[in-house]
Recover the amino acids of this structure.
């Protein structure tokens, strides 16, 4: 799965240019456009489907095999969960040059709000160590959605913590592998799940943005699921949703940027 190099302009989101300036001042969000080529996106979808089939997405994934539940009133889409250290490392190396401002999060630093230093971590430095090898591939069809939520912070047994979400938009049915969309349309039919009719795989995506909400739910900022775009955002405090897909298919890949904590001044940072 070769990943193309290249310079991508990568400023952190300026909240003052959005309707949410008063809600998220000091919160970390970054959008990378055209970060992955259409060919790379298609290969990532193929990677997901190489050893698994699409299943109804659960609301929560725990460490145990039964620690999940399904609530289609809250989350209605499909997913493939893949644990892949090699793929996550390659993605991390591609992203790393564009997230340099958060490779080390220190008390009093610009981005301490990512981890919430006031919660007993006054002397802790958080250092980026890679991406979570748990890659969650997502597929949304007409009528699918994920209602308002904040992403939870994950602590793994090796003392890695997730503090930042990475969402990669992989396009729609028009750039997906042909066997992916054929399987979707043939097996699901008129169920309200992805596909619905053979035309959905060939129609452009309409709807399905990631919507960041104001605290009172009256204002929002939409990040469209544009092919090759990457949305990076802190898990703490960012209230968001996956809005309803109205036409076509939406493919995405979600994972986490992982950190380890050390006492300030004693950090071992991964280059």
């Amino acid at each position: 799965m070769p990943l193309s190099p290249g310079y991508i302009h990568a400023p952190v989101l300026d909240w003052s240019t959005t309707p949410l300036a008063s809600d998220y001042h000091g919160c970390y969000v970054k959008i990378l456009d055209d970060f992955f080529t259409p060919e790379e996106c298609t290969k990532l979808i193929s990677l997901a489907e190489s050893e698994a089939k699409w299943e109804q997405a659960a609301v929560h994934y725990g460490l145990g095999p039964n620690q999940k539940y399904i609530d289609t009133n809250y989350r209605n889409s499909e997913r493939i969960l893949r644990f892949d250290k090699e793929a996550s490392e390659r993605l991390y190396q591609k992203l790393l040059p564009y997230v340099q401002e958060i490779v080390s999060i220190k008390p009093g630093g610009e981005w301490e709000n990512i981890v919430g230093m006031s919660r007993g971590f006054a002397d802790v430095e958080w250092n980026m160590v890679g991406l979570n090898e748990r890659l969650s591939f997502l597929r949304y069809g007409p009528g699918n959605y994920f209602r308002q939520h904040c992403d939870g912070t994950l602590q793994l047994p090796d003392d890695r913590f997730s503090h930042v979400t990475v969402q990669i938009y992989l396009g729609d049915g028009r750039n997906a592998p042909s066997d992916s969309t054929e399987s979707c349309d043939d097996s699901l039919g008129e169920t309200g799940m992805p596909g619905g009719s053979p035309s959905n795989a060939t129609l452009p995506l309409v709807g399905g943005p990631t919507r960041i909400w104001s605290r009172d739910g009256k204002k929002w900022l939409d990040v469209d699921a544009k092919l090759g775009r990457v949305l990076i955002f802190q898990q703490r405090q960012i209230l968001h949703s996956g809005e309803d897909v109205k036409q076509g298919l939406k493919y995405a890949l979600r994972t986490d940027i992982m950190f380890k904590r050390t006492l300030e001044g004693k950090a071992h940072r991964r280059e």
Q: What stands out?
A: The longest strand covers residues 250-263. Helices lie at 38-49, 85-95, 178-188.
